[in-house]
Design goal:
- By secondary structure, the chain is of the alpha+beta class.
- 25% of the residues lie in helices and 31% in strands.
- The protein is built from ten helices and 16 strands.
- α4 (73-85) links the parallel β3 (64-71) and β4.
- α3 (49-58) packs across α4 (73-85) and α8 packs across α9 (165-176).
- The radius of gyration is 20 Å and the shape is elongated.
């Protein structure tokens, strides 16, 4: 079969533990689907950042037409970080098999294998921003800091596969008893000041931890992150209402919430505050967060996506812009 201009290989990086082993069980079906489209799968069992660096460092990108990341948001984060570190600019497809799959949810990627394959074997892409932290680490959906941010890291992987989002919520409830405010200094063009907060999120996508309405108006390719700070409450009695506002997406009206959008922000504290990027451990404060506009091309459905700023198809097919 004649090789096309962009190469005809597909690099499939999968997390063998995600989705209770869904992708290893469907590997033959996946390979068959791509081969029927003239694309040949190179499967890689996902692992450490060092392993992914080795993989991307060895391949010739001209031989490949796309990268497929199979797993949850953490797996996607590892793949994107490795791609950027190694200068790989191939379109990325998503096979969601994690607990929350917030990034895949934004693009309306199905959870069943046939729907995933229909999108992944196609050629239509949507541009997506990537957020850079301290000039060296990247995230695609959400950065969080403060109380509750390490819930994902503390939740047993086997429990996540068995109970799904319930495992996160059970762990979060256990952490509520430890919640304490801390000072954070924010420096950006849109807002600067020092606030006493419980936690903060900087959203590139619209949902986090499976809560689908956290940032309903956010666009993944507008060059901005939605920064949401949950300030110290006069009394913890008000905490349930604050969390309810967060889950319902109407937190902006809550007097204990600070919200702004920015392309760059510096965050610091006089305390050792940890961060979380897409469910994985991030750097401690201080950090500088910057948006890299339209850094990724994500394989999506061919119909226009609500909330997408612009989309196009791969080379050789007519461009389409909203």
């Amino acid at each position: 079969m004649e090789k096309n201009a962009e190469g005809n290989k597909v690099l499939l990086i999968y997390n063998p533990r995600a989705g209770s082993g869904m992708f290893p069980a469907n590997l033959d079906k996946i390979i068959e689907a791509f081969q029927s489209c003239g694309q040949f799968v190179h499967p890689v069992r996902g692992g450490t950042p060092e392993l992914l660096d080795e993989v991307f460092g060895r391949i010739n990108p001209d031989d490949y037409c796309k990268v497929i990341a199979a797993g949850g948001d953490g797996t996607l984060n590892l793949v994107v970080n490795a791609m950027i570190r190694n200068g790989i600019n191939l379109p990325m497809g998503i096979f969601p098999a994690g607990t929350a799959n917030d990034y895949a949810y934004y693009f309306d990627i199905p959870r069943e294998i046939n729907g995933m394959l229909e999108i992944a074997t196609g050629n239509h892409t949507t541009d997506a921003d990537v957020c850079m932290v301290n000039g060296e680490k990247y995230y695609i959906n959400v950065l969080a800091l403060g109380n509750l941010v390490d819930v994902s890291q503390k939740t047993d992987p086997n429990l996540k596969n068995t109970l799904g989002l319930v495992a996160y919520y059970l762990r979060a409830l256990a952490e509520l008893t430890k919640i304490e405010p801390f000072p954070v200094t924010i420096e950006s063009e849109e807002f600067s000041g020092t606030e006493s907060i419980y936690f903060m999120i900087a959203m590139n996508g619209r949902s986090a931890g499976g809560f689908r309405r956290i940032a309903e108006e956010a666009a993944i390719n507008d060059g901005l992150v939605d920064v949401i700070l949950f300030k110290e409450l006069p009394s913890l009695v008000e905490l349930p209402q604050l969390l309810l506002n967060l889950m319902q997406g109407n937190y902006i009206e809550n007097k204990n919430v600070l919200f702004f959008q920015t392309a760059k922000v510096r965050l610091s504290s006089d305390r050792p505050i940890v961060t979380d990027t897409d469910g994985e451990q991030g750097p401690n404060l201080p950090i500088v967060l910057e948006v890299l506009e339209k850094k990724l091309k994500i394989l999506t459905r061919e119909d226009d996506m609500e909330g997408a700023v612009s989309s196009h198809v791969l080379p050789g097919i007519i461009w389409k812009d909203k």
